[in-house]
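Retro notes
What went well: the complex prediction finally ran end to end.
Inputs used:
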Amino acid sequence: MPTASQALNGRARISDQTRKRVARVARRLRYAPHAAARRLILGRSNSAAMVPGSNMTGMFSDLFYRAVLAGVGGVFEEAGYRMLITPPLRSASQPPQFVEMASAREIDGVLVAGAVDGRWVKQTMDTGMPVVLLDNHLPGKPVPAVVNDNTGGAYSGTRHLAELGHTRIGFMGAAVDYPFGRETHDGYRRALTDAGLPVDPALEIIIPIDAERAREGAGALLSLADPPSAIFAVTDMLALGVTTAARERGLAIPADLSVVGMDDIDLAAVTNPPLTTVRIAKEAMGRRAARMLLDLIHGDDVDPRLVILPTELVVRGTTGGHR
Amino acid sequence: MPTASQALNGRARISDQTRKRVARVARRLRYAPHAAARRLILGRSNSAAMVPGSNMTGMFSDLFYRAVLAGVGGVFEEAGYRMLITPPLRSASQPPQFVEMASAREIDGVLVAGAVDGRWVKQTMDTGMPVVLLDNHLPGKPVPAVVNDNTGGAYSGTRHLAELGHTRIGFMGAAVDYPFGRETHDGYRRALTDAGLPVDPALEIIIPIDAERAREGAGALLSLADPPSAIFAVTDMLALGVTTAARERGLAIPADLSVVGMDDIDLAAVTNPPLTTVRIAKEAMGRRAARMLLDLIHGDDVDPRLVILPTELVVRGTTGGHR
DNA sequence: CGGCAGTGTCAAATCGATTTGACATCCGCT
DNA sequence: AGCGGATGTCAAATCGATTTGACACTGCCG
């Protein structure tokens, strides 16, 4: 079948006419080349693994990761690459599935979204397999990564509240084991300091990202003797938990309490009132990371090993001036 | 390397001592067999595709999907199988990724969860690739499938309300393009008829599964001149939308309105009040479907092509007697 | 007529792991 | 000594697609 192969793959010495004839026959016979055989001789599989980090509750649950996934998928599809999503991480001591797939050379590259044990990343990279981190980075390690400007985002959200005249601004942070948690906290505190406001640890609550916990946490903040008049939450889901808790206490938004989220999930624009939030360029993040991985697979050097994407403040209906 | 292969794969004529020695060396060299080469000679890849149907991509089916995934993953892992999740369906006219993977023999079987175009299923099965549907079935077609007893579940949820003395029982159905929608509707109507209650189309609302629509829909039902005193919703998320809408109108639950959901997501037990619901055996569904697929892959005949799993009514705090 | 470009056929090598059958040792037992 | 069982070595075939180089054929041009 050398002729057939050359015709289908656009190689040498085959006229257009023959090429088309072969293609027609192949279609009629429903012929599809055997992926493993191709992989073996060509040395590449044209597929990459997308790994949901341990902070992802589920690949599709998270509106955040769905948007990222769309960006990644678009670039891969355009490049003729296949994206395989691995299941959520298994028992901690065993290597996650992507490590096995990488060492068996089933894939050409790995894209890890979110929290991951650096040990597995290192082991995979040591075998020469390209890895790109997404929404996560290993500080001090030369692992290519694409992240959001979490510090800057938290800064601009908090500053917005300060500029509206609020002086007691609460913080709802996320307890996660990757840099996002610390970075947002930094941004919040820095904005307070720059605005000449004191940092009050009593106004800071750090919880796992979870619907119930968010409402409880917000309730605790609002029950303080001297409660905040505004709250910056590090994700939109947390911010929505805050608005729910406020409504349960009879507080009007934004009259009694201003709220800023971060993310700009689809839902944010249609809540009542629509949520003021710091938009994360989710699709761009996915696209950028996917392109970086493809470059690495093709052997190109990627220039900045760490890409930080800027955020954008989107002022909607949940923020107002301090009385 | 015949000896090495025989040692690692537990084949003939190799003493335990040599076996161990080979294993040690292999580990030190970080040797892992090339998946494609193995696939080629062995004729199987020990991996299967898990396909999220077009209804599984949304956030609300997600808690459901996660539980199913856990069941599937457990069985696969135990069997030494790898599960690859394909990304959400791409543009409608192109074949979804699992079809390509199947025709290139990258996988040994396909598990489709939820709504899927029957055309692709047929095309895949025609090539001899085992396919099992999960939470979906193609009526009249001999495609192996594992489903919930949706009719029975809706029946028991509705009957529970009738037994509590409710006579005007609303229905909140899902507008989806697979049997779930029709089956739950049937179960609801049948329960009414069996209880000697009239069917009133004005009490039936059928909407896409979506947070906003659920609240609006419930609002419409509760605004009727002669509103229902109880509502059966076909998913827990819809039921929670109902309770939210009721609370917004100052109705107490269950005093003024009884609500029953279906699913029993984790959240259902911790809401206030905890949700009465019809439990779907989600993990069992995943396990059963995974086992069926493995049987088909191993060439065994599966006996009932359609497995229907029973539901269980879980009475919690959102249902009470009719005044 | 000789040569050459354009096109197609064909056999052989290649990718990496596994399986098989032939052959070689070594050991213990009769 | 001779035999059989246990164990290990080795060369060769296999899986399916691709690539390469040798060769053949046609038709056109100088």
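What we learned: Chain B touches chain A at residues 30, 32-40, 45, 50, 52, 56-59, 62-63, 65-66, 69, 73, 77, 82-88, 90, 97, 100-101, 103-106, 127, 211-212, 267, 270 (CB under 8 Å).
What to try next: split runs per interface for comparison.
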